[in-house]
Amino acid sequence: MRKRLIIFYLTVVAFLCIYLPWKIEYQGNRASVGYFFIWSPEDMSFSVDFGRLLLEIVTVTLLAAVAYIVFGNSEKQADEIVIGKTDIREIRKVRRRPMIALLLSFLAPGLGQVYNGQLKKGLIFYSAIFILSILMAMAGLQLYFKSMVVFMALLICYALFTIGDAAIVSYKLKEIALRPYNRWYVYFFLATLAIGINSKIGKPLV
């Protein structure tokens, strides 16, 4: 699985470096002119938009890192067993409800995973969506209709994936050992923070 992910990642990066975003500059103003192969720009006055190319590579790298961590390593069991010097004690288990996991993931990607006891996985999903959105705002991609449509489609697919993953894992786990972060006020804080950050994203930062 790891080798396939690495090969797929390198293939995508290679394609991005061949099918490049181009720009044209006139009197200090920059305008995007679309994507063309490196050997056939429509106009010789066009130049490669390295800022957007870097953003694309960073985005793909981030998504590949998330996929590598989530799918490259075997999933750890959510149940815990505390081993003492003389005895083994099972932690009290609490039932997980798929509908609650689904609703929490709807509020913020990754929150359903936290509810399921998958803190590392949940925080990766939680942070990735905002890093991508901030990068989009920094590059001003929301100013271009086609870029905005593609980016929003990717975000919707990503959100649906995290929602489905949370619900399915919750259904399979049935019960988990309750952790300190499995509290309603932790979910409330993360959801509120997600909504707050999302409300600030939208204007280009540069």
Number of helices: 7
| Helical coverage, percent range | 55-70%
Kindly state the number of beta strands. Answer: 7
| Distance between the amino and carboxyl termini | 38 Å
Which overall shape is indicated by the principal axes computed on the Cα atoms? elongated
What fraction of the residues are assigned to beta strands by DSSP?
A: 15-25%
Average pLDDT taken over every residue? 75
- The order of strands across the largest sheet is 2-1-3
Q: What gyration radius follows from the Cα positions, in whole Å? A: 21 Å
The secondary-structure element order is HEEEHEEEHHHHEH
Number of structurally distinct domains: 2
Q: How can the largest sheet be summarized?
A: 3 strands, antiparallel
Structural class comes to alpha+beta
Give the uncertain stretches in residue-range form. Answer: 74-89, 202-206
